Amino acid sequence: MNESLPELLTIETDAISLQRRHARSSTFGLGAFGFFLLPLVIMMVGGGVFGMTRPDWWSPFLSVSWLMAILSTTAAGIARVNESPRRGTLTIADGQVTVRSGKAGAVLPSGSVVGGSVTPGSDGGLLILNLDDGRLITAKVPSAAAASRALEALHIDPLGRPLVGRFRGGMLRTFAGFGAGFALFLLGGWLKATLELSFTSGMAWLLLCVLLVSGWLLSTRPPEIAVGADGVRIRGKWGARFIAHSAIASATVDDLGALVITRHDGVATSVRIAMGNGPMLTAVLHRIELAREAARASEDSADRHATLSRGGRSLAEWRVDLEDKARRADYRHARLTESELGAIVGSSGASAEQRIGAAIALRQVAGDDGRGRIRLAAEQCVDARVRVALQRIGAVEPRRGEATRGEVEAEVQAMEEALADDANGPRPRTYRAP
Fold this sequence. Notes:
434 residues, PH-domain like, 5-stranded antiparallel beta sheet
């Protein structure tokens, strides 16, 4: 029997942080950039307003603008330090979670914590708590056992939800982008004063500078890596790439701090991570290994279930046949129990076709309990198309095998999108994430 948890659970931690909805450091940084560039913008386009002769207010305006830029830069640096993990405590008591990081603190209802994970390490462990608004609480704890007790107190299954690794952008990226923009604006101001360019030319140069700086920041923004029961979704600059656990041969971190995922066919996917994201990167790598172990344990079981195959039939015919067999208990005769069907629905070793087929059969055999297990499997899924298909199947209540026309059409369409390229086997495939 497990030791009962105390009514008050407090964990002292060397580093804890609660992700802010809006980072103050980013706000102050943008403000500093704006104050620095405002005089240059006026220099570039001001010829059409007050001519090339500087007005009397120009010198004091320039001094105030750049003074505000220096103050904003200083404030951004201070905010960046305050937003970093600091020594504090995590307390769980009376239905609330209290986070103390340095002098800052926050009190959250325990119901707002919807997921979590534990990453063991040589110097303790890393606890990550997922909030319902998408933010994260990260805490370096004395031991993995202490982190597990926190999850148990919150009734959180560490593998119940995907781990979403949101990484911070590097300072070099920000300084390089703003520095390049500053240099471009200076060049534009010099050209404006020297060549006496027109108002239209100044505006065109201004637009070009904005586009170049925006393009740099967009092309170098940090990735987001989500690890679910089915695979790894890497959301980059322009879209998302999904790699099934069954297709992964290894996952490592190279000497430059990049996550390298190598498939069984030898194709490697490298994700560059900025410095300062070591704990989160370690947590992502650990979660991938846990999920791959679970996938290997389920591969042999998933290969035995040929009765779930589509067999060249249309999606609508396949769906009806699965429900008919489930009503006649054919799956029970084939030794596919409710437990086995539930395992296939949540298995990363099964194909998308097998998982969807098992979900349809489980819904018919197990009723509301089966629908609950299907919805749970959907929550653990990071492949967007399969997740939507499972959500549709779990949302339709079986009525002796009947459903409304709209429900059937929505379900079949979701299945069609999920299985569109499943015949090609484990992929990654690239698509724009919803």
